[in-house]
Amino acid sequence: MGGTNGLDVTRDAGVVLLRLDRPERRNAIDTPLFTALRDELRRIAASAEDRVVVITGAGGAFSAGGDLNPSTPAAQADDATDPGRTTDLLRDPIGAAAQALHDLPQPTIAAVEGVAVGAGANLAFGCDLVVAAATARFAEVFVRRGLSLDFGGSWLLPRLVGLQRAKLLALTGDWVDAERAAGLGLVAEVVPDGEALARALALAHRLSVQSPTAMAHVKRNLDAAFGRTMAEALEAEAVSQAACSASPEFQAQLAAFRAGAERRTT
Question: How far apart (Å, rounded) are the C-alpha atoms in residues 50 and 66?
Fold first, then answer.
């Protein structure tokens, strides 16, 4: 389904496709779109039918970041000279949308064609996997606009690329092409231009048949890894494995495995 908020949502066999749909602005994200992202991600988190999420942009770009064009109605309504107002917006809906993406139990895949800039870059990097077209480009342009990072960039970048490289990307705002992004660990896979969405959807459908309980626990434990000791990680693994072992998906897969093993030995 589409909407006037700039977010198009479609579903197919457990895969949810979220398409930023403001191609005339290279999918720059204004307040209504941040709000729509927040609300839809929260709905997905509560849905047992939604197994995997793919995020992409319309019209050959992923996202040009937060919409700073003063001519837009949303920008005129948001007085950037009021620090209190700006702080409120960065907490919600901008920060709330980033938190909703991070909190999703379902795997998320960004399909990036064209540019992913600022908050748009961090929207992509906030996904579990990024599939990028060969000519896709990324940039943390905040400092070039006199701004600091938002949409979780200060948390994401050090974990993805290390502290030194994170500072280099954030302090320069330099462009990073798809191949370099893959080398830095920002991108999982680079594909020919025009194929990012198809590859992301194929991967999403592959994941959609996996156990949602297992995938949620895998995500949660890996995301928490940098804040845990080995002992804490082992305890979390024990709790997760017990929860997965009790899930109906595991019981069904175990029964199928045992039946197959029995057939192979007879």
Answer: 27
CA distances from 252 to 11, 14, 240 (A): 26, 19, 18
- Contact assessment for residue 20 and residue 60, using Cβ atoms and an 8 Å cutoff: no
| Tokens, residue 52 | 């995997």
Six-digit token pair at 35? 């709000």
CA pair distance 108, 81, nearest whole angstrom: 35
Q: How far apart are CA 47 and CA 41, in angstroms?
A: 10
User: What gap in Å lies between CA 224 and CA 230, rounded to an integer?
Assistant: 12
Please report, for residues 97, 101, 129, the alpha-carbon distance to residue 19 in angstroms, rounded to integers and kept in the order given. Answer: 15, 14, 16
Instruction: Count CB-CB contacts under 10 A for residue 251.
Output: 11
CA distances to 36, 114, 145 from 9, in Å: 10, 21, 31
Angle at 79 between CA 78 and CA 81, to 5 degrees: 145
Residue 117 φ/ψ, nearest 5 degrees: -125, 140
Please tell me whether residue 11 adopts helix, strand or coil conformation: strand
Provide the residue-wise pLDDT of the chain in tens; the chain has 266 residues.
556 799 999 999 999 999 999 999 999 999 999 999 999 999 999 999 999 999 999 999 999 999 987 544 344 444 556 778 889 989 999 999 999 999 999 999 999 999 999 999 999 999 999 999 999 999 999 999 999 999 999 999 999 999 999 999 999 999 999 999 999 999 999 999 999 999 999 999 999 999 999 999 999 999 999 999 999 999 999 999 999 999 999 988 888 888 876 666 65
| pTM exceeds cut of 0.70 | yes
Which among 6, 2, 11 has a CA at the least distance from the CA of 205? 11
